[in-house]
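Listing S7. Sequence submitted for prediction.
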Amino acid sequence: MGDLDHTHDARIQTWVASATPGCDFPLQNLPLGIFRPAHDASAPWRVGTAIGAHVLDLGGCAEDGLLDDADPAALHALDADTLNGLMALPGTTVTSLRHAVHALLRADTGHRRATERRLHAMEAVTLRLPVRIGNYTDFYASLHHATNTGRLLRPDSPLMANYPWLPVAYHGRPSSVVVSGTPVRRPWGQQRTSSGVPELRPSGKLDLELEVGLFVGAGNPLGEPIPIAEAADHLFGCCLLNDWSARDIQAWEYQPLGPFLGKNFATTISPWVVTRQALLPFRTAPAPREPGLPAPLPYLSDVREATTGAFDIHLEWQLRTTRMREGGDAAVTVARTNLGSLLWTPAQLIAHHTVNGCNLEPGDLLGSGTVSGPDATACGSMLELTKGGREPWTLPNGETRGFLEDGDEVVLRGRCSAPGAASIGFGECHGRISPAR
């Protein structure tokens, strides 16, 4: 998966004044995304990196000869309007681009004036989905989430028999994955009624799911599984992901084949992909398996995974209602949790996904599943927080919520920190609920 190098050194500063310590996008992050000037809807989309409160046009820097130290294959991939080309390249090639960009932005660069020409203020650009997503798989990898939700249905036996043995997942809908800031319309769907005859109506139990999205880099040929020892090398990077869920629609339809219309109406992701190179300082051991849980089968077991297979990513979700917005109130943090608490690591998800020969492709999106902790302060969904809506949550202004109402805005945030490392963030992943048609 690579080793730490000078681009992770917290002592190295940048000349970009907005990239101050504690911001989401310091010099040690350099996430990748797709942008264009907000004032020109006819301008081509470009590959960029976030630095402080600015976006650096990497394609433009390549055209100016400022990135010639990078591998030519990486420079060729910058002449595109998605990150798929970069994602298909070997990790060493992508790292060469990171090194070249780092050299341009560090305080002692000799190319500051030339680079400043390619720097845009973040508020002056439009961001879009960074990747052409061919496939989307959403996992169910949080033991706490599975236990919290299972207990609502099966108090005495919340986990299904297969859960401790394999990473459970379903295939989602890539066409309805949207970038942060896109409104989310309340969906219609069949719902159970007391008469036994279902009724078609707008969802009354609209929910969020706090997740991390994992982007696949180099894929695998059809029929050729990715061994667990190599799986981490197939992770390109991460984003924040909100798997919006209509719980009433889901409850009626999910048996026997799983989620469908209750899930596929919208999935929101953050616009910046934090690369695996940027995440290296934040590798950590997975959470210990709880007593009574079996050890993973051999194809999911690896010494490296047992020691550094997880990522220490602090996650939180916030809520801002219409009344709060009208009163000028900031969003309130509802819950905090950590990706490192998952039962399965990203590499285990990749190894399991391909063990049957399924071919992953560059840009495929894997959702971690809702990331939750054992108590209400760490619930990654309202389903868990409010016990299925039976115990509404009270906001500081006195409003209550069992599930999301029209006008509610949900904001996801993520941050990594470790001793001796520069803290990095993911930016925002937010969406506002629009009324049903």
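Caption to Listing S7: primary sequence and predicted structure tokens for the chain studied. The chain has a mean pLDDT of 97. The chain has two domains: 6-128, 136-434.
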